[in-house]
Amino acid sequence: YPSFPSPYPTFPSPYPTFPGPHPAFPGPYSTFPSPYPTFPAVRPWLDDAGCPRQQNWTEGQEGTLECRAGGKPEPRVRCSKDGNSLAAGVARPVHRSHAGTYLCQASNALGTAERNVTVEVLCESGASGLLEFWGSRGYWDSW
């Protein structure tokens, strides 16, 4: 006998597939990532616990710009000062040029949250070992 196609034709579904099994919908599921966020989806946010507005570093030591965001899907965090980006959460040797105000932005598919973070750098000056403070205003302040 010749082979015949299935009695029911198959067509691609016009409906999006969402990841993960659900007891009411046993499958099958697409293995491709969905362009839709998984639920529950939440806009990004920046708060004092994850992204403090004021951070103090010491010149010559390691410093880390602390800025973590919440949201779902997990937001991407970018921080910049004067057009120069600085990766949040990465330790680096501190220099007085790091002092200033950074604009940190957390973004996901649902939106963007912004926060200004001020970094002040404690510096050692000259021969006496006197500590001075390089403030966010861009000049030396004696301590």
UniProtKB/TrEMBL annotation:
Which Pfam families did the record assign? Answer: Ig_3
GO biological process entries: cell adhesion
Task: Name the SMART domains on file.
Answer: IG
Spell out the InterPro entries in the cross-references: ICAM_VCAM (IPR047012), Ig-like_dom (IPR007110), Ig-like_dom_sf (IPR036179), Ig-like_fold (IPR013783), Ig_sub (IPR003599)
Extract the SUPFAM superfamilies matched here: Immunoglobulin
Q: Name one GO cellular component term.
A: plasma membrane
Q: Which domain of life is it from?
A: Eukaryota
Q: In Gene Ontology terms, what is one molecular function of this protein?
A: integrin binding
Question: What positions does the domain Ig-like occupy?
Answer: 37-118
How is this protein named in the record?
ICAM1 protein
- The UniProt gene name for this protein comes to Icam1
